[in-house]
Each structure stands twice: as C-alpha cells, then as structure tokens.
C-alpha cells in the first residue's frame, strides 16, 4: 500500500529533514484522512451522447465528495511542503497541482477564448468551462489562494460552485484565513458568498507555528555569494536543498498574459533561475512581477559584471530586482562581485545605485523575515 502523507512526514522527521512541529503533524494527519477518503471516492460523470441529448440516459446520483482542506497561516510555516507531500501520495490520477494565480489566469484565458468564438450573447460559459476542468482533474491542489483584483473576485465563487457541483475535491493553501480574503476590495459584498462556500466545503487548518522555517533555513547562510566559482555554486546548491526541504524539484511552466514562461527548477514556493534565463531573454516587467508574486524565494545564479556592454541585460536585472523587492521575495544570488562594484562604471552606473541599495537591504534579516506579498 502506498505511503500516506503522515507516514512520509514522519519519515522525513526521522531523517532529520524536518524539525518536530505539532501543528504541521496535525495538518499531515488531516491530509492523510483525506488521502484515505479519496481511495473510496469517484465522481460520477454527467451522461453524454445522443441519449443524453434526448433525455434517455439515466443520470446516476454522485456520492458526496470528501471535504477539501484549506491550509492557512503565515509565510514559511510549511504549507506548500505539506501540500506537495499530499500530491506525491494522492491516490488519484486526475490530480492537478498548480499555483492559484496560474489557475485563475488559465480560466480567464479560456473565458476570453469562449467569448471570441461564441460571442457574449451565448449561454453562460462558466458551467461548461468548470465541467471541462472537472473532467481533466477532479482533485485540484491550489497553492497560495489570494484574491487581488475585482476581475478574480467576481468570478471565483461561481467557478468553485460549479466545480463542487461536478464533484471536484480541492486542497488549497493561503497566507490568509478565509475572512481576510479580498479584504477592503471593491464590491467585496459580492465576494462574500465565496467565503461562505469555503467554510461549507473545506476543513480549515491553521498552521500557526511560531517558527518561520523560511527564515530558519536561511539563517547563517549568506544569501549573496561572490565571486562566481565552485564555492558560490556549492553554497547556492546547499541553500536550495535546505529551502526546498527535500521536496520534489523539477521544471515548471507558468503563463504570463498568454505566453509560456519556463521556470527551470522549482518546488512549491521556491524557484531557481540563472541570470541568463531572466535577463538575457526578451522578458519584461510583467514577467518579473509574475515571478515575484508566485514565488516566496527566488534563486539567481551567475550574475556577471554589468556595464554598457551588456546594458540591456543590466536594465532587465534592475527591473527584476525592483519586482522582487516590491513583493518582499527572498532572493538568493551568486554574482561575480559585491553589489557596490557589480556595475563599476560607464553609462548606467549611476542609475544602478538604487539597485545596489536594494541588493544590500535584501541580505538583511529584517528584510528576509518580512511577509511575502503575493
């Protein structure tokens, strides 16, 4: 029989990969209970084909789905790590693990395509689009649920209502408890039914541990390594292992305004790129803002000396650091030189001084300990 999330969690404790945390263990027990409930559950598909169209097909009553889980708490408490344990053991092939913002962006893109093809006067597109999601993945694991704009706030409740009608089970993480979602947002009264739906369909589990594991893993390890070489690479490799805490690591693709952006290595809320990946390709501010909002921790390897000869890449690096700084993203860098001599002279050196200041501030514990702004 496959290991469940609790047994995997305890195995990692025994290997010293995790520190004992009763709050995390309780969440692992809840995830294991869902794991066992899912082995006995299968949503029933709606009848299709000509019999269904003529009303001749019998509709089978679906069993009630298990309640989903809503894991919430401050940054660095292990929410994504626990979700990844669950995903790695899930007894369901039709399982999708995706960042919540990416999930909503994909839905908005599908909504736009529907309206382009069928026109705005056609039937309501949300039910069929939600059914399509349910057919592809009836177990959804959504990381970092957060509502930041009115466009998302106005549709998210209807999307989830249709998903639940189709028998979809959802596990999600969030830095906010349900009552704080979309706080002070425009027309928030229209969003409140979604909060009620969360409370109805999810078990709420608060990870209120006093320990910020993100800060703990980085303590004592400089987040800015220089100069480039084997020692800097080994330091980043070690810190990356600590930040991902043994969770699976692999490439990911995120969607930015309909374009695919490759993340070479990622695990949960941690992503790793090279300078070339981010600054020597035609990326723009929206790409960097998207990365900064998706990931709590971003590694950037092999930042070279900057100057007029690579001015375009340097300009992108400035935009990247601005986006990461504004979102309070923890940044780990290997570079050819210290920030104050990274862009030593020439056109653009004066303007780079603000980035120097930010790079130095981002190494301080006071910055590292701040809450990530999704």
From TrEMBL:
One of its GO terms (molecular function) is ATP binding. GO terms for cellular component: cytoplasm. GO terms for biological process: cell division. SUPFAM superfamilies: P-loop containing nucleoside triphosphate hydrolases. InterPro entries: ATPase_AFG1-like (IPR005654), P-loop_NTPase (IPR027417). It comes from the Bacteria. Keywords: ATP-binding, Cell cycle, Cell division, Nucleotide-binding. Signal peptide: none annotated. NCBIfam families: ZapE. This is Cell division protein ZapE. It comes from Novispirillum itersonii.
